Amino acid sequence: MTRSMSSADREKWDKRHEGSHARGQPPGWIERFSALLPRAGAALDIAAGSGRIACWAAERGLDVLAVDISRVGLARIAHPRVRTLERDLELDPRLPEGPFALISLFHYRQASLSAAVREALAPGGLLLAEVATVANLERHAHPSRRWLAEPGELARFAAGLTLVSYEEGWEQDRHTARLLARRS
């Protein structure tokens, strides 16, 4: 990936976050696993955007590090338990040093992060993830295939972790893959 593409990505996400005032709520499916998800320790929110998952985790009692390419999105996160780190993970794929009790990864695909995510999880730590899949193209022209996961891709991303839950399906007119996986 070239620096110009990285700059274009940053500008695109900064502009999107400038035009949005609502952070939004985390997906409802997460609540099914509330009893399993940690309420203390460190958490990492990868591609945090304006912090909907980071702030949710902080409200649970976790100390969260939110990583994103957009400084505008990160600036919208105003929670005392959330620290932010501006980083383009495509140019610099190093994850912050763990261990983390929880790593969240929502609507961001970067297969090369798989091993780093596993290594950054604490023993017993959980990966909570959701990504849109190619099935979306049956109903929507955007996002393009480049940004959509193939069937089973998210489960393969979590290889080496124990799957607690994995599902793919339509939810609120969007086809997503969702998982909760634990490091042994």
Structure notes:
The model has no long low-confidence stretch (mean pLDDT 91). The protein is α/β, with parallel strands linked by helices. The chain has one domain: Vaccinia Virus protein VP39 (Rossmann fold), CATH 3.40.50.150. Strands 3-2-1-4-5-7-6 form a 7-stranded mixed sheet. It contains 5 helices and 7 strands.
Numbering strands along the chain, what is their spatial order in the largest sheet? Answer: 3-2-1-4-5-7-6
Number of domains: 1
CATH fold label: Rossmann fold
- Poorly predicted regions: none
Strand content: 25-35%
- Give the overall shape, derived from the CA principal axes: globular
Q: Gyration radius, to the nearest Å?
A: 16 Å
CATH class: Alpha Beta
N- to C-terminal separation? Answer: 34 Å
Q: Mind telling me which CATH architecture this is?
A: 3-Layer(aba) Sandwich
According to CATH, the homologous superfamily is Vaccinia Virus protein VP39
How many DSSP E strands?
7
Write down the overall mean pLDDT: 91
The helix fraction, in percent, is 10-25%
List descriptors.
7-stranded mixed beta sheet, Rossmann fold, globular, 184 residues, alpha/beta, single chain, 5 helices
Quick synopsis:
This protein has 184 residues and is an alpha/beta fold.
Topology (SSEs and partners):
Blueprint (H helix, E strand, L loop, with lengths): L2 H16 L23 E5 L5 H8 L3 E6 L2 H5 L6 E5 L13 E7 L7 H7 E12 L20 H5 L4 E10 L2 E9 L2
